[in-house]
Amino acid sequence: MAGNLKQLSHKPERLVSGHRMCAGCAAPVLVKQILYAVDVPVVIANATCCLEVTTSVYPYSNWKCSWIHSAFENTSATIGGVEAAYRAMKKRGEIEEDVRFMAIGGDGGTFDIGLQSLSGALERGHRFVYVCYDNEAYMNTGIQRSSATPLGAWTTTSPVGTAIAGKTRPRKDLTKIVAAHHIPYVAQASPSNWKDLTTKAEKAFNVDGPAFLNVISPCVPGWKYEPELTIKLAKMAVDTCYWPLYEIENGQYKVNYKPKEKKPLVEWLKPQGRFKHLLAPENKHLLDELQSQVDREWEELLKNAGES
Amino acid sequence: MKAKQKAAPPAATKALAPQEKPGWTDIPIGAVVVEAGNGVNYQTGDWRSERPVVDVDKCIHCLFCWVFCPDNAVVLHNEKFKSINYYHCKGCGICSAECPVKVITMVEEAKAQSNANDSGAADGDGNLSPKAVGKGG
Amino acid sequence: MGKLIAATGNQAVAQAMRQIDPHVVAAYPITPQTDVVEEFAAFVADGVVATEFVPVESEHSSMSTVIGASAAGVRAMTATSSQGLALMWEMLYIAAGLRLPIVMPVANRALSAPINIHGDQSDTMGARDSGWIQLYCKNQQEAYDTLIQAIRIAEHDSVRLPVMVCYDGFIVSHSLAGMELLEDDQVKAFIGKHKALHPLLDTKNPVTYGPLALFDYYFEFRRQLVEGMARAANVIEEVAEEYARLSGRYYGRYEKYNMDDAEIGVLVLGSAASTAEVVVDELRAQGVKAGLLRLRSFRPFPKAELARELSHLKALCVLDRADSPGALGGPVGVEVRSALLESAKRPAVINGIFGLGGRDTTVDLITTVYHRLMKIVDTGTVDEPLFYLGVRGGNNNGRELEAAIPQARATR
After folding, report:
1. Which residues of B touch A226 (CB under 8 A)?
2. Residue A268 belongs to a domain
3. CA distances from B12 to A169, B6, B21, C114, C219 (A)
4. What does each C-alpha distance from C223 to A99, B28, C308 come to in angstroms?
5. A33 interface with B at CB cutoff 8 Å
6. Which of A183, C128, C366, C386 has the most crowded CB, counting CB atoms within 10 A?
7. Could you tell me if residue A124 is inside a domain?
8. Could you tell me the CATH number of the domain that includes residue A105?
């Protein structure tokens, strides 16, 4: 298993300091936690996103492992090509070593524009780990709604006006869409629960086929909160069951963490400026709807895991 | 400004004037960066408005600050907290917020710099993380 | 002497791909390229190639996959047509910008709308600024030969650019012709082992592909690309000569037919050149000094050579199997005109758009083109610098051409 923090502290850093992610961004935190789980060389394909632009400003690169960015919507196809090249070289006896492959994108590159490429690569069975760092909007272009943006949330393209209060549609359940490809390993995780995440990453890298990690990634400017709260908000998403930690291993659901006390969603919403309007009395119906969505999905998850 | 000067920046960070940058005949084709991880030479510590100051004597070395730091700016030695890498620390304050024993205080950068003898701040000041610089996978 | 077979253009291309045996092929079927993918999938299924075949879910993904594979350090190929190429558009520029030596046969087809499956060159002509080398083939044999040569050109140290090998949809892709295959080991020896540059899979020397290059570096990388393209000119010729020694078949950047003493000439790309050769023969038999120049390498464009080869003509017609609405003419016409601008002596130049959507371009129709040129020489005036060859309707244009056909036939 991935081990404790003291053990992890001996792992090499693949994403080094000097990147230009915002202060307090969760993405580099979850990336390093995931990469601690793999000891062999990794090649990463990165979708166009915050992580990509801030870690590869020419002539600099913050990646100590081989890394490729080609475009926004095609990360899965790109890593599929690298992985196919690896298999071809193995077949011809041109490479000995064990190498792992990872694709990473934000929710825009994964839920939306990159969904087709992801689905194709999952169906074809490439051996790679896809990591979605889900910050629930298009943050790289400056906070526009995505299909991962929750109901009621403010973004610049789901603004809070006098007629409409934030996003009018619920978020897409991508983890389940991915699970419907019947790939060996699918999991949802949070950087706040590092041990859960590194353990899941280790499982993901070890399966002989596609694996998918959907990881919540609080965004300081997009969610509108103070940067030191990043990990606390990730934790609160887990403790309110908004972002349950679970995995689907060979079709079997497992809930990895059940909060002792399921906290009301409003505790997670409150520190976030993007939900400020939901606390106003006239938007109570939205808040209630959001809470009942969370409740329904949590119940469904427990049922799927045979725990209800 | 003293604190910043003390942290001798690696040579590559010296800002080049546009005309000093290499021409098209002098750089690898296809925009490939062949020096993996050279981004560590880029300073992000100057983004900071507050700096974490650690009371090392009271630190329990749980390493939460390390595992949650977005910038790998927590320097460890032998599985223990050693110092903060102020060359890269952006001052987000996550380490302070997550410290279970509350020994990391966020201090206004201007104050911290004018008081270079601030306990805890000095010893790791500006050092690049040896992990970040040396190792790779 | 290789093996004589009868093959369609697609089969010829698939045979070349079998002999190249690339590490990775990722492709998505589209008419008229489909047989290439099917034939190659059969080679994979029969174990006659060691290729990892990636049956992707779109052309965007096929180009993305070969980009990943090429950057990983192996030989990677795909094939497409028309809308498929259009869907790849974004990735074409990226393949070239990352300097990845990908080779891609393209069975040329018209672009929608309206949807059409037949041959014209609108698809690849639109990609002319993508940084890909573009070689246009006349027939099945040339498509085969060029695909093999393209590997050497793309991977050449001084080039490192992707190559499109273009051949006309249906006219070449689907019609059967006798042709010669090289022996498998001849091809293997000719293309040599793939030499990777900064491969992602060299994990001891990790690299970063596709960084963000802003105003301080982007321009330099584009300038490098232009240099690679310029150097490709010589490499295409060198590879052609070496290939000629092996096969007895030589193709340079362009091919002349009765040009040196010609007074009137046509410049065209692709299979229409075969038809034009027939017309030239007929006119020569009548004592008309007609010539033909077939341009094979549109990118890089051999501007100095064309200026030299064309300047002695009295009148020239550039035939474009693609249009650029709102421009001065078709993409080839505009460029050839520009190439001639610096010549002290230059012919009157007209530009005909022809064969869009696979419209049949017959001997009769091309004969009318030479008649136009003869008229220009006789009268010294150009009435119609840009015309649409064989289109119906409009003000006289098409009807005039149709009326000219029986007249042209009568002169034969």
Report:
1. 93
2. no
3. 48, 17, 12, 55, 21
4. 35, 12, 27
5. yes
6. C366
7. yes
8. 3.40.50.970
Domains of chain C, CATH where assigned: 3-247 (3.40.50.970), 255-410 (3.40.50.920)
Question: How does DSSP assign C182-217, residue by residue?
Answer: PPHHHHHHHH-----SS-TT-TTS--EES-B--TTT
Number of domains in chain B: 1
- B59 three-class SS: coil
What is the predicted ipTM?
A: 0.97
CB spacing of A8 vs B133 below 8 angstroms: no
CB A106 within 8 A of CB A140: yes
The residue assigned the tokens 């009295």 is C314
The string of pLDDT tens digits covering residues A88-137 is: 999 999 999 999 999 999 999 999 999 999 999 999 999 999 999 999 99
Angle at A136 between CA A131 and CA A142, to 5 degrees: 110
Q: Are strands C386-389 and C254-257 parallel, antiparallel or unpaired?
A: unpaired
Give me the domain span that covers residue A118. 13-150+172-263
Whether A227 has its CB under 8 Å from any CB of chain B: the answer is yes
Q: Is residue A13 within 8 angstroms of chain C, CB to CB?
A: no
Is A184 within a domain?
Answer: yes
Residue B24 inside a domain? The answer is: no
Q: Kindly state the tokens that stand for C361.
A: 């371009």
Give the whole-angstrom CA distance, residue C6 versus residue C8.
7
The pLDDT tens digits of the residues spanning B44-81 come to: 999 999 999 999 999 999 999 999 999 999 999 999 99
In a domain, B19, yes or no: no
pLDDT at B134 over 60: no
Nearest to C3 by CA among C184, C131, C251, C220: C184
For chain A, how many structural domains are there in total?
1
Please indicate, yes or no, if residue B48 is contained in any of the structural domains.
yes
Give the residue ranges of DSSP H helices in C29-81. 34-45, 59-72
Pairing of strands C103-108, C163-168: parallel
A111 near A47, Cβ under 8 Å? no
C-beta atoms surrounding B137 within 10 Å: 18
Q: Cα C24 to chain center, whole Å?
A: 23
Side-chain-side CA neighbours of residue C153 (13 Å) = 36
Q: Is residue B123 part of a domain?
A: yes
CA distance C306 to B114: 72
B130 and chain A in contact, CB less than 8 A? no
- Cβ atoms of C14 and C36 within 8 Å: the answer is yes
Specify whether the CB–CB gap between C143 and C149 falls below 8 A. Answer: no
* Residues C160, C72, C236: CA angle, nearest 5 degrees: 20
Chains that touch B (3 or more CB pairs under 8 A): A, C
In a domain, A284, yes or no: no
Give the single-character DSSP code of C356.
G
The CATH number assigned to the domain holding B123 equals 3.30.70.20
